[in-house]
Amino acid sequence: MKIILTAGCSFTKYKWPTWANFISWFEPEHRIINLGAAGSSNETIQRSLYTGINKSKSVDKAFVMWSGTNRYEIVHDKIDENLKKNETVTYSRWNPDFEWNIFYGGHYFKDKHEYNIRWFQNERQNDVRMLERILFMQYYFEKNKIEYKMMCYKGHIIMHDKDKMSIGQRALYDKIDWSRFIFYKDFGGLDDYTEEVWPDQYNKPEDLHPLPIAHYHWVRDIMYKIEHKVSENEYEKLKKWKI
After folding, report:
1. Dihedral through CA 203, CA 72, CA 138, CA 179, nearest 10?
2. Could you list the pLDDT tens digit for every one of the 243 residues in the chain?
3. What interhelical angle do 123-143 and 42-55 show, nearest 10?
4. Can you give the three-state secondary structure of 99-126, one letter per residue?
5. Phi, psi dihedral angles at 150 (to 5 degrees)
């Protein structure tokens, strides 16, 4: 059976069904492997995709939803059990493919995370790195003859105003095949779509993630743009996540 890879952050894999869970409703002939992980940086997302491709010759499609540009990883060669007692980052995982432990979303000590954001990050550099991640995966998909589409969890993570770009940034931007992107309206992402079309499909203020109803309609109405009838029973199940 052919494989579809999906990758992203918590907008792709969460405690309730996301868009990645509904792909099988539209691609029943494929096996879906969801590589998403909450808190993932775009570096993490990129690596999960090319590793997934390297591990299976059956991959022939992929969908990626890019995350925030200011997220970063902390990597340790070994798992330090003592460290977890003071950990403030929710997510960490051992990666057997690279034999290291990754902390997602930033440094595991709050003061060091804030120091990193203040002194070691540059917004313009993050914008360029975003384009580099996209372009790398574009070339990787093409080299491996994999059909693909890219999306954003929020539209603002990619800067599209060329008048505000440097020469080098514009050169990268122009090499990207933007026809491979799925946007809501101009350059919107899943969260922008939900805010406008399904504003009641959040459990705010406790949780800022779109609920399953919005994810399903994102797949049906934005990604595939086809009529799809889901059973009344299945649709009612999706509504139960609303508090």
Report:
1. 40
2. 999 999 999 999 999 999 999 999 999 999 999 999 999 999 999 999 999 999 999 999 999 999 999 999 999 999 887 776 455 556 788 999 999 999 887 888 888 889 999 999 999 999 999 999 999 999 999 999 999 999 999 999 999 999 999 999 999 999 999 999 999 999 999 999 999 999 999 999 999 999 999 999 999 999 999 998 889 999 999 999 998
3. 10
4. CEEEECCCCCCHHHHHHHHHHCCCHHHH
5. -120, 150
Q: How far is 9 from 204, CA to CA, in rounded Å?
A: 19
Taking the mean position of all CA atoms in its chain, how far away is CA 89? 18
Q: Count Cα neighbours of 214 within 13 Å in the Cβ-side half-sphere.
A: 26
CA distance 103 to 21: 25
CATH code given to domain 3-72+123-239? 3.40.50.1110
Residues forming CATH 3.40.50.1110 domain(s) in the chain: 3-72+123-239
- Omega before residue 205 within 30° of 0, cis: yes
Chain Cα centroid distance, residue 174: 22
Does residue 177 contact residue 138 with C-beta atoms inside 8 Å?
yes
DSSP 202: S
Query: Is 227 buried (19+), middle (13-18) or exposed (0-12) by CB count in 10 A?
Result: exposed
Q: Which residues contact 54 (CB under 8 A, 6 or more apart)?
A: none
Q: Residue 183, SS3?
A: coil
